[in-house]
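Data availability (excerpt). The following record was deposited with the supplementary files.
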Amino acid sequence: MEHVDLTGHWAGYAALAIFFVAYLLVILEEMTGMRKSKPVLIAAGLIWGMIGVAFTAIGQAPAAHEHAAAVIEEYGELFLFLLVAITYVNTLEERRGFEVLRGWLVRQGLSYRQLFLLTGFLSFLLSGILDNLTTALVMGAVVMALGRDNPRFAMLSCISVVVAANAGGAFSPFGDITTLMVWQKGKLEFFEFFDLFLPSVVNWLVPALLMFLAVPKGRPARLEEHVTAKPGMWGVVILFAATIATSVCFKNYLSLPPAMGMMLGLGYLQLLAYALSLKGGRRGDEDMVLDSFAQVQRVEWDTLLFFFGIIFAVGGLGVLGYLALASKVLYTGLGPLPANVIVGALSSIVDNIPLMFAVLTMDPAMSDGHWLLITLTCGVGGSILSVGSAAGVALMGQARGIYTFSSHLKWSWAVILGYAASILVHLVWNAALF
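Predicted structure:
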């Protein structure tokens, strides 16, 4: 695929201006009342329209089509993965799974502060097995159930869950899309990623401890009666785990897109829903009936369309040459250490996937220690802002009005301290790899 540099072209300048205006409107969502997907959808369409005009003018229209098809493929895989993951989360909620978990946690007699640490810790561990987005969706639902009578606890816990989910995904080869990209490129061996475990723990623990004192004292109100899960709840849990395992196996052992494994997992859920509906119809038990299509309809479309706009807008900037230019300037002019730190910080504004793709495309000469560093920073840098990671964006949709851009921004200073601390720990702990 031929690459054309249009960074000095009118289309390049106009695309940058459109992107910044759209992103400003995303940040001002609470003030304007405009859902975040709307400005980025417009921006993506305009940017690619200008790419089409510019490429056609220089006789490169087929190249523009190839670039667009590549971005469509990337978004299509993400869309299908998200569609299934969110559907499973919705189904667990409908089967009262999170209410059962909430009830169990409340019955343990834990305080809000203990629950704050526990939900963050569980998010960190789960993200290394699942992906950070699925972990954030699952634990976010638990946090919202626990904090339904205490919005401040819910808000702080959501921040902790986002940071923990991103940190937990950074030390696992399949915990985040960026770690998968590095692994597939052969830059690091499978078990080398686990050298990032301690730095990743520090990345979450530092801001968590700083926020701990701001968590309200007291305990959630005890349930008046025992919550009983609807029939099939544990079946959904088992099938969700089987779906994630299927997705990982498709990726690791069959070299197939993980989204295909997720769609197979959606088939698992459809069969379970059919079996439950048959039993429910015979018994006249409405709780037994599970309408899986209704759970698909409850997907947060604002979030999915936001991802579409961001991926296409940023992908468009990459086609115009801006991402490659930024990587070249950073790694050539500054060197790998400051460049990797800066790229990680940029992932709080720009999606980490195209950033990591740009770094892998430039292929700078770096030691294993530096490849681990960019894996760490690109994985956890998105925690600085709520819109910097898939976990944060998804949780904003799930905890609408509680976990927002501005509420996260108030604690960004603590997340930045955790970001810096994790880098220092990596430089010391894994010094032999540099």
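Summary of structural features: The mean pLDDT is 85.
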